[in-house]
């Protein structure tokens, strides 16, 4: 990645530059302006090295400029800081930081708050130690006594705590109090007790609450002061203060429950009262207490304290779970019932975000697949029956109450049924549909925690719930879909017994009958006329698909037909739900999907959507994500469609990359900002899906487009701006290598491997780039597995060092560590001589990761590399790492490869001879007894456990 250009020693804005940007901002805000085009021009300007400095100057020093224009400059600055801080030169960063601080005390509240937003984003990007001047400046502001400075500082502190997830407990060199939290908490405690201003009390308390999870040990005694402050504000007249009191108590449950334990009865009583508070925000915040209480690390005696309150609490939660008369969600669903087929409006469509495509991760034979990209149907906490895309479907008291009941049922179990079932039974017969719906929701909420107690009633419940799918009220149909999905695991286990202790065959037949009723009922709702019900049915079907997996095969025909009909008929908002259900089926349906008939049913309506909407349609990446899942899932069944889809996906990527290059050349003068990184990502993912699905049959496609494909891959793995583009490009590299078509990318291996190593440098192994690091690791390992030693050898030392560096890092993502261990083993398997010199250094971290791998081909490859290194440099393994090697070998449950098993036996015997009896005995004594036994029996007990 190119380093930012060196800035001048002291930057200052030029009048001509300020005027040009002000003109752009003015045009952007002008009535009737093409805001999308203007915004794209402003985004293009972000590539100018000092553009953000001009935005900061306009926001903070733009006297005489309209406040709205200054605010727009600040919001653009915030967005640019979020993505471009790392590539901003140090002197430019310093200018922005210096400019923002005085603006926190500006006379205009709009300017203060916008500056606070930018401060929080810069603080997040720099980290607590990267802007040491910030926190003393904020402390001075809150102590200044000036209303504007206090207001601006509290706003900035709160937003900074949000951006940093409260992590202000980090030591900052030169800060007398040690950490920003240590500096700010005492001052905020003082403001929390301010008798004159509820706004100051509210903001100070809100900021402290965010720091509670990371309260610094150096200020532990102040937590008592904080707790006393919460109690003193418990009955504050300001609703916002009471809301933050409830939030603070919930935070203490997780961070320091022992502080609340002496007064727990009083706290529970207070929270019950607040759950009935006249202010809905206070009631909602207090209702979060019940789930938090059950999830917190409390002594059993303390947990038992809640039991005596359940007779009062449970009915209250059930009451809160009924829809209010004016609930916006209900009004929308009922309106959809009347106005069937009405077109979605733009305001109905909420933004959505791509899942990451993490590859590999040591998942044994199932490893190497796309992770995080589809389905999602298995989320049991799916908004308590709500449509996630619905603007009205925000977290509210009804959902919080259901969540509280859900979590409490996991603690108190079946004993709650005595309080719940009489109310549920009464409500299920009630003519008021709101009460019937709340009873259905309650059954779903306790479905996991009270499974044992509900089991005798489940046949009756299923018989009641399935007809409720036909209820005339859309919210009853919708919630019934969700509640049935909560019983998916139970029904699947009943219908498809697979393990000792599972239901007997007669019961299995009953289970299949239930499964049939549920899936057919859900399929009818998938094609419901009501959009709200459609969304709930698709989510429930996705959950059932993910639980049933390949057992769904006998119902595959009706499922595919209903989903194809949904793709054909749904409007834009619910189309995403249909895509999700199709993707989940493709990822979970198993071998039954690998059929041309399935491909012919699902791909034509999806490809027709692509054809009719073109490459500029707003939901292109969701559509292509679904096409990708289907192509990968149906495998060779998609061969009829593969060639044109592969060509079109490659063309989409090429077109976008051409636009990117044109925009870079045009700079700020470009008015046609049409490059969309997400379109490149979904095109790359689709190419990956086809290569993965076709396997060896992909070779002809790759060969036909080899030059263009290599150019796209090289351009994307080296993209300096988008981690997502790099991530998907590395996934494509690995899938092409796996498919047997890897020979066609060999000419570009130097660039690909250089970029892989660059993405594994310590400064790149960051949260924002983690999936890219993961896929870079995985793809390098797939290349090593696919190519002979002479192809891999030139990259072994550089990438080997990168893998070791990853393994030596603390607190890395598990999948990244596993992929690094596998990739290192594959390189060692091909060219151990290049890695043998550092064998002793890499052994401990490598074997620590190897022992966590699941048995399978990837683990076999990794251990084959270990064997090769031992054969080349056995002496290098003598040392502290040898204990880790023994633990890693003992981690095998069953070594399927007879050759590898024999080689591992040779390793054990070889070290026993090399060390001699005395040192070998000392080594064995350093191991856990279970490990000793496994190694002692390794030769004779290589059988499945």
UniProtKB/TrEMBL annotation:
It comes from the Eukaryota. GO terms for cellular component: cytoplasm. InterPro entries: ARM-like, ARM-type_fold, Importin-beta_N, Importin_beta. Residues 38-106 form the Importin N-terminal domain. GO terms for molecular function: small GTPase binding. Residues 337-390 are annotated as: Disordered. PANTHER family: IMPORTIN BETA (PTHR10527). This is Predicted protein. It comes from Micromonas pusilla (strain CCMP1545).
